[in-house]
Amino acid sequence: MGVLENCESREGDALLTTITREYDRISIHGVRRSVLEAQVSALGLPLIEAAISPGASNAEYEAAFGSALRTARERWPGLHCIAFGDLFLTDVRAYREALLAPLGWRGVFPLWGEDTTALAQHFVREGYRALLTCVDTSQLAPEFAGREFDAALLAELPATVDPCGERGEFHTCVYAGPLFTRALPLIAGERVRRDERFEYCDVVITASGAWSAAARCCRRWRGRGVSWPAAHHPRRSGFRISVRLDLELRGYHPVVVARASPSHTLGKGPTPG
């Protein structure tokens, strides 16, 4: 996540991600719910989930996404903007904007047009840590799954691969960095190939970190699809979001639900998936 911090009219209220129900993992990324909840706890923001089935159609995804946005607005009636970490794929941005308009939401793309090589290098220099959890083997060698997203990896990426994985070459799980109150004790686990194409690497919280993670885990909100750490309730903490390197690289593909002052137009901040 981190560029919204420089836009005075914006304040983050929540994170939104898509979960595949039967797997209980983040869709596409394959990250376990236990890791997701540890991320959310370390960031101190509530989470809203859009739940879909394996192999969901666009129609199912769009219905789940719309339901998640309704949940957000019921919880925080003033919300009307949602920030995405998209970088340069115009068809993806157009799809999001067309999806949002009938729902009464506006998309914000603070990283749009940024140089992705500089962005990836900045992410590493800032001290963020991430593991590759999914690799599209039609674009990148399977051995990259489970590796650290660091300077060494960036140097080894083929010229055809975007350094931020914007074309879906890879997906990551961010587990440490300036926005985190603590680093997550993650390790790369087993690898598995799905659909004869996608190489997944399971990332797990180590045994030594499991107890502390459980002790600090989010208190599940009884309302539908929303959870947050009790100590960081959005109305108590006044936590101000800063999306720092999107890194789908966008970490756990969060999108940041943001509030904008009516007297300001949302503008682009500096840079993060």
Report on the architecture of this protein:
The protein is of the alpha+beta class and 273 residues long. It contains seven helices and twelve strands. The chain has helices spanning 33-43, 58-75, 90-100, 116-125, 151-156, 207-215, 234-237; strands at residues 10-20, 25-26, 47-52, 81-83, 106-108, 129-136, 170-176, 186-194, 198-205, 219-220, 226-228, 255-260. The strands form two sheets. Strands 1, 2, 3, 4, 5, 10, 11 and 12 form an eight-stranded mixed beta sheet that branches. A four-stranded antiparallel beta sheet has the order 7-6-9-8. A hairpin with a 3-residue loop joins strand 8 (186-194) and strand 9 (198-205). The relative contact order is 0.27. The model is unreliable at 5-9, 210-254 and 258-273 (pLDDT under 50).
Helix-strand blueprint:
Elements: E1 10-20, E2 25-26, H1 33-43, E3 47-52, H2 58-75, E4 81-83, H3 90-100, E5 106-108, H4 116-125, E6 129-136, H5 151-156, E7 170-176, E8 186-194, E9 198-205, H6 207-215, E10 219-220, E11 226-228, H7 234-237, E12 255-260
Parallel strand pairs: 1-3, 4-5
Antiparallel strand pairs: 1-2, 1-12, 3-11, 4-12, 6-7, 6-9, 8-9, 10-11
Radius of gyration: 17 Å
Q: Which term fits the overall shape?
A: globular
User: Regarding quaternary structure, how should these chains be classified?
Assistant: single chain
Give the structural class: alpha+beta
Count of helical segments?
7
The arrangement of helices and strands along the chain is EEHEHEHEHEHEEEHEEHE
Q: How would a textbook summarize the main sheet?
A: 8 strands, mixed
Q: Tell me the total number of β-strands.
A: 12
State the helicity in percent bands. 25-40%
Name the poorly predicted regions: 5-9, 210-254, 258-273
Mean of all residue-level pLDDT scores: 80
Total separate domains: 1
CA distance, first residue to last residue: 7 Å
Strand content: 15-25%
